[in-house]
Each structure stands twice: as structure tokens, then as C-alpha cells.
């Protein structure tokens, strides 16, 4: 059964469906001679394209995903490969990028970056309207690696073929539908392929792999899980002094206390039959703001130091969460 997963990245405005193609699924190249295509593919060292081929049955005619891998064929053959369908919901349109990524440390060591080819699909493009539904209808996903040789350009090298699982196909089709809905929901005058690609470039820095890892199923990618011993609270019991309020009422009267200067009279005393001016400290009110509670009428509960809870949870040392053991806190598989 082909392994696949879905991952979402809000910052990149992206939903990604990733199929894993293990080296065991290698097949002989479908391209027996040269794959002749547009200048872009012919000129570049690494490049991707999705194409129909001549043939009568869907099995023969595709479409197939091609990946041009000049100078690295020996380093990517026999390596785990991923094909990522990335659905980008950009301001000026929807973009589907099909990435072919080969996990080859040797390529990374030699080139400084991993082996990735991409090809871009713009929903209102006539080719795309035929190509993508046909690609998603196929039973198999076929990736063909080509490379320039001394004898001919873009010569077939080897292929990888996997069956698209039914649930994966459903996910791909619904993502493609959602992308079209997003795209055609934008007024035609505001759609811009250049604008969408500018957004893609600004949100996908070159040094970050656009093909995301599978989120850890145990923690849903968060890298930690709620501590089951304390239910995420970090403490085992509610404080019985403040009952979780974190504060208790102050001994004063609603934040105020009697003025010590005038003993609450607001005045000092009669002197030679005359009333002395009103107490300056309390401006004659006889009451001052209580310093202990700064007039709030409540003070921090001393029993729980204002946490509302007592008995620190030994399992999580009051953090309320624990590092996910499945992924060692990385959130990724
Ligand atoms: Zn995890
Ligand atoms: Zn308390
Ligand atoms: Zn007080
Ligand atoms: Zn006073
Ligand atoms: Zn805990």
C-alpha cells in the first residue's frame, strides 16, 4: 500500500498531499529515447514537467510526471522519493505545484540543497484543465527521471510507479476542487499568475524544503501532548483557600482603611475652641486607600502564591504538557 499523508501550513497558505515512493517501486524508464519538450525543460539542469505521451490507453498516455536530473542520476536512483501536490491559496489565484523530492544526502552534500523539481499549474490554463483531472484519475502515479547525456538531451533514465490509494485520490480531488473554487472566486481582473508566484516566492524561502514532513500523529505536529496526570493544569489540586480565584479578600473594607492621622475623624481636634483644618492625609474623608491591597480589596492568595492550584504535578513539573515521546518533540515523523 502506498504511504501518503496530508499536511497543512497556514503561513504558506498551503495544503499538501504527499505520496511516498520507495526505491522498491522503481520501473524501467518510460522514455526510451529523448523527451523533447519546451525550452525551459531543455535548458535547465533540474526541472519538472507533467505531460501526456503518445499512446492509446491511459496506461500508455499518462499524464506522467517528469523530473530532469542532470549530473545526479546516480545519486538519486534507489533513494526514497516523495511527490508532493501543493495547493496554494494565494491572494491573486490558486496554484498547484507538483514537487518531486528525492531524499539523497549525497546530492545535498554536493549541491548544497536537496534534489527537488517543481512544476506549476494555473487553474485557468487550458492544458492544466485537462492535465490535472486526468492525472488524478489514473490508477498509478508515474514519475520518470530524465537527464542529458552525451548522445542526446533529456534521455530516459529510470521511473518510479506507485498505485494512488483511494483515500489519497479523494483527498487530491477535493483539494483540486477547493483550489479551483478559490481561484475562480477571485474576480478575473484580480487574478495574476505573476502575483501568485511572487507570493509563493516570498512565503517559500529557498533554504526551506517546500515538501513538508508528515506531522506526528501522536501530537498532531505540536511536539508535545497534554499531561494526562494533571489534565494540562500543571497542578494536582485546586487551592482550598481561594478556590481557584488566585486572590482572597483583604482584611480591609473594600480597599479602604481608617486614616491613622485623624483616627477617622477627618479633622484633628479642637484647639482653643477652633476646629483645626481638615486632615491633609485623608483630605477630610477619614479614610485612606489600604496599602496592603493597593485599594483592590483583594490580595494574592498566600496558600497557592496566586496560582489557584496546589500540589505541583510531578509528571510535568507544572508545565501542563509533556514532550511527545513519539517524535521527541519535533512534531514531525
Ligand atoms: Zn509527536
Ligand atoms: Zn489559593
Ligand atoms: Zn485591603
Ligand atoms: Zn485623616
Ligand atoms: Zn502534569
Structure keywords:
333 residues, alpha+beta, five-stranded mixed beta sheet, 31% strand, elongated, binds zinc ion
**Oligomeric state:** single chain
Order of helices and strands: EEEHEHEHEEHEHEEHHEEEEEEEEEE
Please state the average pLDDT score.
92
Tell me the distance between the termini. 18 Å
What strand order characterises the main sheet?
Answer: 1-2-6-7-8
Report the total helices: 7
Rg value? 34 Å
Q: Helix fraction? A: 10-25%
Could you list the spans in which at least 5 consecutive residues all have pLDDT below 50? none
Query: What would you call the shape?
Result: elongated
Description:
There is one protein chain. The chain has helices at 39-43, 58-61, 73-76, 105-111, 126-137, 166-184, 193-203; strands at 4-9, 14-21, 26-27, 46-51, 64-69, 81-90, 93-102, 115-121, 140-147, 155-163, 224-226, 235-238, 247-249, 256-258, 270-271, 274-275, 287-289, 298-300, 309-312, 321-323. A hairpin with a 2-residue loop joins strand 6 and strand 7 (93-102). It has seven helices and 20 strands. The longest helix has 19 residues, at 166-184. The relative contact order is 0.14. By secondary structure, the protein is of the alpha+beta class. It has a domain at 4-214. The chain has a five-stranded antiparallel beta sheet. It has a five-stranded mixed beta sheet with strand order 3-10-9-5-4. Strands 11-20 form a two-stranded antiparallel sheet. The chain is elongated, with a radius of gyration of 34 Å. Helix 5 runs antiparallel to helix 6 (166-184). The two termini are 18 Å apart. The structure holds zinc ion (5 copies). One zinc ion binds at residues 216, 218-219, 223, 324, 326-327, 331.
Amino acid at each position: 500500500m502506498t504511504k501518503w499523508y496530508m499536511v497543512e501550513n497556514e503561513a504558506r497558505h498551503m495544503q499538501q498531499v504527499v505520496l511516498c515512493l520507495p526505491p522498491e517501486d522503481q520501473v524501467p524508464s518510460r522514455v526510451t529515447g529523448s523527451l523533447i519538450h519546451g525550452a525551459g525543460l531543455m535548458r535547465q539542469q533540474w526541472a519538472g514537467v507533467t505531460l501526456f505521451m503518445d499512446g492509446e490507453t491511459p496506461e500508455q498516455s499518462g499524464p506522467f510526471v517528469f523530473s530532469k536530473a542532470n549530473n545526479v542520476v546516480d545519486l538519486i536512483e534507489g533513494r526514497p522519493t516523495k511527490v508532493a501536490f501543493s495547493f496554494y491559496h494565494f491572494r491573486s489565484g490558486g496554484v498547484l505545484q507538483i514537487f518531486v523530492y528525492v531524499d539523497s544526502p549525497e546530492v545535498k552534500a554536493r549541491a548544497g540543497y536537496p534534489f527537488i523539481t517543481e512544476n506549476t499549474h494555473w487553474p485557468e490554463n487550458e492544458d492544466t484543465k485537462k492535465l490535472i483531472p486526468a492525472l488524478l484519475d489514473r490508477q498509478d502515479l508515474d514519475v520518470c527521471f530524465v537527464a542529458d547525456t552525451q548522445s542526446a538531451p533529456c534521455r530516459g533514465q529510470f521511473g518510479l510507479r506507485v498505485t494512488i490509494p483511494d483515500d489519497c485520490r479523494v483527498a487530491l480531488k477535493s483539494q483540486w476542487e477547493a483550489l479551483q473554487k478559490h481561484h475562480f472566486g477571485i474576480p478575473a481582473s484580480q487574478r495574476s499568475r505573476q502575483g501568485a508566484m511572487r507570493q509563493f516566492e516570498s512565503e517559500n524561502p529557498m533554504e526551506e524544503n517546500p515538501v513538508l514532513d508528515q506531522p506526528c500523529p501522536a501530537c498532531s505536529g505540536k511536539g508535545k501532548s497534554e499531561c494526562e496526570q494533571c489534565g494540562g493544569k500543571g497542578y494536582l489540586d485546586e487551592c482550598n483557600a481561594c478556590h481557584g480565584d488566585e486572590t482572597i479578600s483583604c482584611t480591609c473594607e473594600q480597599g479602604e482603611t481608617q486614616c491613622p492621622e485623624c483616627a477617622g475623624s477627618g479633622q484633628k481636634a479642637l484647639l482653643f475652641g477652633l476646629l483645626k483644618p481638615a486632615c491633609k492625609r485623608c483630605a477630610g474623608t477619614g479614610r485612606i486607600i489600604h496599602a496592603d491591597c493597593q485599594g483592590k480589596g483583594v490580595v494574592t492568595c498566600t496558600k497557592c502564591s496566586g496560582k489557584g492550584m496546589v500540589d505541583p504535578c510531578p509528571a510535568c513539573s507544572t508545565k501542563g504538557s509533556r514532550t511527545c515521546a513519539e517524535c521527541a518533540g519535533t512534531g514531525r515523523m
